[in-house]
Automatic annotation (TrEMBL):
PANTHER family: ALDEHYDE DEHYDROGENASE, ALDEHYDE DEHYDROGENASE TYPE III, ISOFORM Q. Residues 15-433 form the Aldehyde dehydrogenase domain. GO terms for molecular function: aldehyde dehydrogenase (NAD+) activity. Coiled coil: none annotated. It comes from Streptomyces antibioticus. This is Aldehyde dehydrogenase.
Length: 446
């Protein structure tokens, strides 16, 4: 019998990845392209297994698994592969303040070894899109999937070493103890997605080594629905975004701000949209998700008492099912308005109009997204100029994640830094100026 090798300790693993970084190989375009291509093959060759793991963890339908996780990550990788060579070209810079004859350019330098810590709600996408960005920037990576989505974590831990060089990416599975052990090590960048409490732990640990961080956090993303908007279309788009993944999406619309008349019409239209999407018994619809575990189930059910249930409300602990639910008559200080909901419950808070909606948003933490439905140009402009958030989307909540050209990230309590496409390259690189000053003639600083 062969003895089972002892698992590699975090220090050894990082030393191995750091040594690989120091060879300079990850810097080459060929290495980056090869790793990204292999990562794409992993996704394409194991689509079925990944979809099954997503169903086991979160009851995700095949179409959602493709649109929001597997195909989504493939599209991101394609975008990186198509553009990387051009983005990496050194950018000439004019240096009129330097001695005559000086030339300069600016280049993206890899940072070294990057730690990516992922959450459970999009367990494939939220691990692999940052990993792809870090590889595109020429780094080596320690990837820590979430233990709360165990089927996806185990599958990715098995597949990644089959596709990617062990000197490029190491997967470390586990929960608090394993992540704490990793955070004690020195990394060159930490990319964390999850809640703000752990975000603070990550930032504190990073401070010990002066390691830069990207924190992709959450919060309560409000939706303002203006008087006079087309309520049928608004409800369809709102319900699609809110009830995808049973509301467990960081950029899900958290609550609605609208006037009392619009609220009544909106509730009726949301009920119609939900029936169209999931039938009269969403519990039986394959396309409707489940709450990830009992801890979150109990937490979300407790929030149902914060208002009058005007749609849904049914829940079943054994199946971790909560129906798509709308709450009316919700007070601004009720429990459902004090924490990120992260479940299929949509409270409607009545406000007289846009002035009060803007004040309501600005009185609270800066959200990951602000959403608006309005036919008025003036209201679009005011939402853009008078509110602060990770992103503002008018007309279609969650559309900001569709295009890798847009930077994705929060501000204040909803996070720091951004990524996707070229923004990932910037997040995982150091922008280094290279200045060449001729020895002769000697200029002003000589
Ligand atoms: P989670 O419980 O899976 O935790 C995230 C990661 O942190 C996991 O890998 C976990 O192992 C690790 N972790 C947990 N406790 C830790 C500790 N004490 N010390 C060190 N590491 C620890 O996921 P979650 O936090 O419940 O995720 C949901 C939150 O994430 C929501 O607030 C949501 O809005 C946010 N989120 C943000 C984005 C975004 O892109 N901005 C995306 C998804 C989720």
């Amino acid at each position: 019998m062969h003895p089972v090798p002892a698992p590699e300790q975090p220090g050894e693993l990082i030393a191995r990845l750091r040594a690989a970084s120091r060879t300079g190989r990850p810097r080459s375009l060929e290495w980056r392209t090869e790793q990204l291509t292999r990562l794409r093959s992993l996704l394409q060759e194991h689509t079925d297994a990944l979809a099954e793991a997503l169903f086991a963890d979160l009851h995700k339908s095949r179409s959602e698994a493709h649109a929001a996780e597997i195909g989504f990550t493939v599209r991101e990788i394609d975008h990186l592969l198509e553009n990387l060579e051009e983005w990496l070209r050194p950018q000439p810079a004019a240096v009129p303040g330097c001695p005559a004859g000086s030339t300069a350019y600016v280049q993206y330098d890899p940072l070294g070894v990057v730690l990516v810590i992922a959450p459970w709600n999009y367990p494939v996408q939220l691990l692999l899109v940052p990993v792809a960005g870090a590889l595109a920037a020429g780094n080596t990576v320690v990837a820590k999937p979430s233990e709360v989505a165990p089927a996806c974590s185990a599958l990715l831990a098995r597949l990644i070493p089959q596709y990617l060089s062990r000197d490029a990416v190491a997967v470390v599975e586990g929960g608090v103890a394993e992540t704490t052990a990793l955070l004690a090590q020195r990394f060159d960048h930490i990319f964390y997605t999850g809640n703000g409490t752990v975000g603070r732990i990550v930032m504190r640990a990073a401070a010990e080594h002066l390691t830069p961080v990207t924190l992709e956090l959450g919060g309560k993303s409000p939706v303002f629905v203006d008087r006079g908007t087309n309520l049928a279309d608004t409800a369809t788009r709102l319900a699609r975004a809110k009830f995808a993944n049973a509301g467990q999406t960081c950029v899900a619309p958290d609550y609605v701000l609208t006037d009392p008349d619009t609220a009544r019409g909106l509730v009726a239209e949301i009920a119609r949209s939900v029936r169209r999407m999931f039938g009269s018994e969403p519990e039986l619809a394959r396309g409707y998700g489940r709450i990830v575990n009992l801890h979150h189930f109990d937490r979300v059910v407790r929030l149902l008492g914060s208002g009058r249930i005007v749609l849904g409300g049914r829940h079943d602990r054994e199946n971790r099912y909560i129906a798509p639910t709308v709450l009316a008559d919700v007070a601004a200080e009720s429990p459902v308005m004090r924490e990120e909901i992260f479940g299929p419950v949509l409270p409607i808070v009545e406000v007289p109009g846009v002035d009060q909606a803007i004040s309501f948003i600005n009185d609270r933490d800066k959200p990951l997204a602000v959403y608006g439905f309005t036919a008025r140009e003036e209201v679009r402009r005011r939402l853009a100029e008078e509110t602060t958030s990770g992103g503002l989307v008018l007309g279609m909540p969650m559309a900001q994640v569709l295009d890798p050209g847009l930077p994705f990230g929060g501000v204040g309590e909803s996070g720091t830094g951004s990524y996707r496409g070229a923004h990932s390259l910037a997040a995982f690189s150091h922008l280094k100026p290279v200045l060449d000053v001729p020895m002769r003639p000697t200029g002003p600083v000589g």
